[in-house]
């Protein structure tokens, strides 16, 4: 029974990726374009998310700051999940909902991009991050799932939502990681040429 259950997880994950491949490539390209424009203009990419999505936010920023698949110059990105002193003090003194938005108000500049990751689109701290990014004239790229959640009501012209067509958090996250690698590949191709 458990082996069958494990096998079914692989099947479900593969099917979710096949469905995502039908609808997401053009949207991922649009998101990659926003990121490349920002980087070419001296901007940077801030990332945030909770739980597994915090890991995804850090995964993306480390691939920009260090490298993805090839040798190339370091690219500017900051994961807003990693500074435990800042995160715990904002949560302690103000509210957990402000842990990302307060950092964005300090670090975000016009033309920067926020990569906001939430499988439900309903995490209050990610919602407040999107609002803070707009206040700073930043562009938002959102990685979401399900029906897009409350975040779906917040986007401005120029923002890009990459919404995975799935309902289970883990399956959505598995596609988010693939999208993150597709964005890294797009950025490297556009900035440093074909390989
Ligand atoms: O990784 C997982 C589940 O696969 C969890 O840690 C998950 O990320 C957490 O429950 C998050 O708090 C969910 O937040 P969100 O995706 O709805 O914004
Ligand atoms: Zn997980």
UniProtKB/TrEMBL annotation:
Source organism, top-level taxon: Bacteria
Any Gene Ontology biological process: D-glycero-D-manno-heptose 7-phosphate biosynthetic process
Pathway(s) where this gene product acts: Carbohydrate biosynthesis; D-glycero-D-manno-heptose 7-phosphate biosynthesis; D-glycero-alpha-D-manno-heptose 7-phosphate and D-glycero-beta-D-manno-heptose 7-phosphate from sedoheptulose 7-phosphate: step 1/1
Primary location class: cytoplasm
Names of required cofactors: Zn(2+)
Pfam families per UniProt: SIS_2 (PF13580)
Chain positions recorded as Zn(2+) binding sites: 59, 63, 173, 181
Coiled coil (residue ranges): none
Catalysed reaction, written as an equation: 2 D-sedoheptulose 7-phosphate = D-glycero-alpha-D-manno-heptose 7-phosphate + D-glycero-beta-D-manno-heptose 7-phosphate
GO cellular component annotations of the record: cytoplasm
Family: Belongs to the SIS family. GmhA subfamily.
Quaternary data: Homotetramer.
Name of the protein this chain belongs to: Phosphoheptose isomerase
Organism from which the protein derives: Isoalcanivorax pacificus W11-5
């Amino acid at each position: 029974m458990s082996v069958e259950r494990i096998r079914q997880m692989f099947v479900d994950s593969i099917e979710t990726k096949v469905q995502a491949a039908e609808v997401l490539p053009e949207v991922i390209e649009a998101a990659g374009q926003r990121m490349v424009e920002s980087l070419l203009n001296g901007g940077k990419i801030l990332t945030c998310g909770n739980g597994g999505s915090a890991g995804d936010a850090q995964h993306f920023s480390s691939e920009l700051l260090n490298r993805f698949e090839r040798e190339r110059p370091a690219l500017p990105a900051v994961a807003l999940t990693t500074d435990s002193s800042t995160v715990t003090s904002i949560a302690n003194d103000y509210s957990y909902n402000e842990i990302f938005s307060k950092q964005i108000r300090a670090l975000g500049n016009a033309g920067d991009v926020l990569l906001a990751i939430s499988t439900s689109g309903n995490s209050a701290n990610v919602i407040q991050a999107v609002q803070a990014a707009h206040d700073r004239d930043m562009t938002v790229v959102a990685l979401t799932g399900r029906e897009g959640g409350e975040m779906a009501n917040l986007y401005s012209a120029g923002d890009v939502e990459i919404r995975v067509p799935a309902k289970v958090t883990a399956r959505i996250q598995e596609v988010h990681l693939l999208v993150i690698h597709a964005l890294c590949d797009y950025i490297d191709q556009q900035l440093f040429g074909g390989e």
